[in-house]
Request: fold
Amino acid sequence: MQVTIYSDGSARGNPGPGGYGTIIRYIDTKGTVHEREFSAGYKNTTNNRMELLGAITGIEALTKPCEITLISDSKYVTDAFNQNWIKGWLKNNWKNSQKQPVKNVDLWKRLLKAMEPHNVKFQWIKGHAGHAENERCDQLATSAADGSHLLDDTGFMVV
Reply:
C-alpha cells in the first residue's frame, strides 16, 4: 500500500510548549482517498523533538507494511536519512561528526523501530510556502502547542 505522510512540529520557545501535526493519506484500490489527522501538545519540549514525533506518530499508526513517502519541512528529519547522517550515527554509537552525543536519541531510535516493516522515503518541502498539507500540519502543531491539555515529554531533558 502506498501511503503519504505529512508532518510538522512546533515549539513556542525552544525549549517551551510544543506540538506536532500529522496527516496520513492513502488511496484504496477503488480510488477512495482515506485521510487521518493526528496532533498532540507537550508542556516543555523542542521544535526538533516535535518534528520527530510527528513523523513517528504517522508511521506508528500504520498497521501493515507500506511504501511510505514522508513529507516534512524539517531538514533535521529529512537530511538525517537523505544525507545518510543516521548511518554515521549508528556506526559511531550515536555520536555525531563532532564526536558529540546525538540529540534526541530516544526519538531517533523510536523512529527507526517504527520504520522497520516499511519502505520509507523522506522528502523535504519548504515550510510556510503555501503547501496545503504542510500548512494544515503546521496549524495542527501550533494549535496543539497552544492547547490546555499538554502532555509531558518524558524523553526531554533540559541541559
Summary: Helices lie at 47-60, 75-82, 85-91, 105-115, 132-145. The first helix runs from residue 47 to 60.
